[in-house]
Amino acid sequence: ITDYRKFSQMLRAVGFTNVYEVSFGVDLVAKEYNSLLKEFRGKYFITSLCPSMVSLVEKYYPELVPNLAPIATPMVASAKVVKLIHSNKIKVVYIGPCVESKNEAKRYPGLVDAVITFRELREIFDDLNIKETTLEYSDFDAPFGAEGELYPIRVGFLEAANISQELLT
Predict the structure, then answer these.
(1) pTM higher than 0.85 for the full model?
(2) In degrees, to the nearest 5, what angle opens at C-alpha 146 toward C-alphas 144 and 149?
(3) Which of 2, 12, 58, 114 ranks highest by number of CB atoms within 10 Å?
(4) Which letter, b or e, does each residue of 15-36 get, where b requires 16 or more Cβ atoms within 10 Å of its Cβ?
(5) Are 160 and 49 in contact (CB under 8 A)?
(6) Cβ pair 45, 37 in contact under 8 A
């Protein structure tokens, strides 16, 4: 897909009324990680951004569960805001690359109502014959992300959280 605005319109063509980008949730989560680092008091944390990592720790390293950062994932943070915006009168469907997000959603009944992987979404587009070449642009709904858009890029989350990557610091 050549343009995020085409992607947004493709989702609307599927039937979604509102389309939000999770990057605003990344911004919220990044702010919390920055605060956690600034308030460091000797306890080391494992980031809890990745539901697969959380599951791995819980299953194979249960002694490290107390070291999982007490911060929501971008999916959960975004869903909470969207539910708040719509006074809980909306169904939230998260679309992302990770199948483990489906299990994470089960931890929060009524918050994330469904999870679709990118592969599943491609199948939906194919089944409904939705192609970007036949659609006009449509932007995401507000709130919009800022540095959170860097999340999928290597060290993008550290940039979003304003956490120094200088080796000497």
Answers:
(1) yes
(2) 95
(3) 12
(4) eeeebbbbbbbbbbbbbebeeb
(5) no
(6) no
